[in-house]
Amino acid sequence: MAYSGKVNDFEAYIAELEKKLDNKDAEIRLLTNEIDKYKQILQPLTAAVLGFHSIDGAGTPPAVSVMVTAGRIKKFAISAEPLAIEGAQQLLMKTYPKSVRSRELIKDAILDNDFMKNLEITQIREIVDCMYPVEYAAGSLIIKEGDVGSIVYVMEVSSFWHRASERFASSRRIGKEE
What we know:
single chain; 2 domains; two-stranded antiparallel sheet; 4 helices; cAMP-binding; protein kinase A catalytic subunit binding; cytoplasm
């Protein structure tokens, strides 16, 4: 509706604009909450995977301002400028050599995961490249129920003890739990 010059039309036009503004504000709040949820999940994971160290050496990304309000840290300015070559070199991910069999096992495990299967193939390839082997002694506690799931494990061994169900879990095919 456009303003035509009459007082009633003007009031209706203002009401329509206020309604549009309220809808946009609600959408912004919703999207901001979604972004906050994703940041809580991805920031610790990204820092752990990349072993992130900023140019300033403080452990926070460059060009990020931080504001503390009511006990909660909020980021209010993030620069999307391209990094200098020197800074970009610090963000290179460490890769580990793997056999073809191990690469396929990891890729299959990622594609079987409900959250990770939606990643792009280049992202999956990067995850596979950056995963590294860890061996645990028999009887070791590897994953504790209730822990934050910021680490991805791919079991290459075909059997293990599942404490929560009090049973020995085994796989018919490596990489897939029964």
